[in-house]
Amino acid sequence: MELLGLVNYALFMAIFICIYALLALGLNIQWGFAGLFNAGIAGFFAVGAYTSAILTTAMDPDRIGGFDLHFIVGWIGAMLAAALVAWPIGKICLRFRSDYLAIASIGIAEIIRLVIKSEPALTNGARGIASIPRPAGDIGYMESQIAYLAIVLVVLIAAYILVERQFNAPWGRMMRAIRDNEGAAKAMGKDVEFRRLEAFIFGAALMGLGGALFAHFNRSITPEAIDPMVATFLVWIMLILGGSGNNRGAILGAAVVWIIWSVSEIATDRLPHEYAVQAKYIRLFLIGLMLQLVLRFRPEGLLPEPLRGDLRSTKPGADR
Amino acid sequence: MLELDELVMDFGGFRAVNGCSFRVEEGSVTGLIGPNGAGKTTLFNLIAGALQPTSGRIRFLGEDVTTLASHQLFHKGLVRTFQIPHEFHKLTALENLMMVPPSQPGESLFSNWFSWSKVKSAETEVERKAYETLEFLELSHVAHQRAGNLSGGQKKLLELGRTMMTDARLVLLDEPAAGVNRTLLRKLETKIEILNKERGYTFILIEHDMEMIEKLCDPVVCMAEGRVLIEGDFQTVRSNPQVLEAYLGETTGDAA
Ligand SMILES: Nc1ncnc2c1ncn2[C@@H]1O[C@H](COP(=O)(O)OP(=O)(O)OP(=O)(O)O)[C@@H](O)[C@H]1O
Ligand SMILES: [Mg+2]
């Protein structure tokens, strides 16, 4: 029994790590490669989660939909919806300096949360949407956890391969150039505004997918789940700690931070009741402390941005 | 090929370019000289679209380009270097050059997923050209170093190398010789001559090294305090009393 509980816990944690790794990959596209300071990850996460929920749940007379579609349709819909929301935001905000985007994106994520919370027809207000079907959800509990982990893992690996290819391709080189020196990239003919928008939308789509995976795992989604604390702040820490500009770093960071985050919950749960309120802040403090230590001793993160030029076939200075 | 008409550039209350007009003929190497702070670099920024002039017009290849952005001008064949190197510091030297060629198939998200072989063959070609350029600039040994870690002179060369990675019509060079050693400098001069004579590139060259100006440039434009002081061949400009006073110093002879 003890062992079973442990395995269960590990499965649970692994699924969450995969979901967070998707969010961190999305942020890595935006921040690590394009230098865009998106502080509203929770917003895209929410759009993805709710879109997929609405598309895949059974018909409900109290709200619009559900449409009872296949979960794959829901997930693709989640990516498209997040991308669609990102488009006007990027169009307006990316022209300004990066700090404007940070402020604007916090605000927009908050607006999205409030709309979701107070809007009955589409998102069912504060009660949220329940009975979201989970793929392979109707087999035994443990089997279903394993099956879902497998699905999430496949999605993550696919996303990793797709993103990694873009990064090693001329597209990634161009994005890194824009990040490093905007003026020179413009002078070398790169349409900086358009390319940033591209990266912003690309990243947002992955965040939306992360949201959808979360909603289906949880089988329900409520406005509480869109807490900027866990949906934005944690993801940032994962990326910075893992190494921004490095996709493997993003995934490693997601694993490390999530393990600390959830293990610290076990620890704080043992505290006497009167400390229950403080417990959350103790955990936050732990994460913050860890970020400080990494920034102090390994400012580039656990896995720094690799040199990418020599990844291709030609060996350095081969015949020259 | 390039016509500047009464260009004015104000920074707050300060007028850095003050009614500048001149023409650059196709196929020429035009020298742009003048004391520090004369407004030469600012003029480059205006021509290249990095700054919008307060007033005045710019025509390039018979077309009004005053309001075009720098990336649009690049696609019309206008390439520039920066006086203070603007390298992409986390990219390798090789990548700094490889990012330059316009419209690479791999710059589209979709071709990277759906026509990878086309992307790869284009990459091989771009890479070959980049290695060639690095070799010419004697930078092969640092091809895989981060550009941010190169020496000042090496960054300057990389800056120049970027202009060789594309088929340009007009190249703006902002003090390419500063900080570059003498033997390499002679090589650069030769390269500029070849690009000019054989490939038909037009150059505008800002330089404080009068030897280089004398060797390469005709005509020479001398600016001071945001205006064109005089324009003509090197000898005319050098012996002009106003130029002597404002820039080259009273003691004439061989200013170097
Ligand atoms: N962005 C800016 N904001 C304010 N003033 C500026 C700006 N750029 C240039 N200036 C001012 O414009 C004047 C001309 O500068 P510019 O860089 O064009 O000189 P320059 O002719 O290139 O000189 P040098 O030979 O030293 O490179 C200087 O007085 C400078 O202080
Ligand atoms: Mg200058």
How would you portray this structure in words?
- The complex is a heterodimer of chains A (320) and B (256).
- Chain A folds into two domains: 21-226, no CATH class; 227-306, no CATH class.
- Chain A has twelve helices and no strands.
- Chain A has helices spanning 2-33, 41-56, 71-93, 98-118, 120-123, 141-168, 170-180, 182-187, 192-218, 228-242, 247-269, 276-297.
- In chain A, helix 10 (228-242) crosses helix 11 (247-269).
- Residues 310-320 of chain A have low confidence and may be disordered.
- Chain B is α/β, with parallel strands linked by helices and 256 residues long.
- In chain B, a hairpin with a 2-residue loop joins strand 9 (220-224) and strand 10 (227-232).
- The radius of gyration of chain B is 19 Å and the shape is globular.
- Mean pLDDT of chain B is 89; it is low at 252-256.
- The interface between A and B is large, with 36 and 48 residues.
- Residues 40-41, 83, 174 of chain B line the site of magnesium ion.
Q: Label the CATH architecture of chain B.
A: 3-Layer(aba) Sandwich
What's the alpha carbon Rg of chain B, rounded to whole Å?
Answer: 19 Å
Anisotropy-based shape of chain B: globular
Unreliably modeled segments of chain B: 252-256
How big a fraction of the residues of chain A is strand? under 5%
For the record, the CATH class of chain B is Alpha Beta
How is the main sheet of chain A built?
A: none
Ligand species: adenosine-5'-triphosphate, magnesium ion
Distance between the termini of chain B: 30 Å
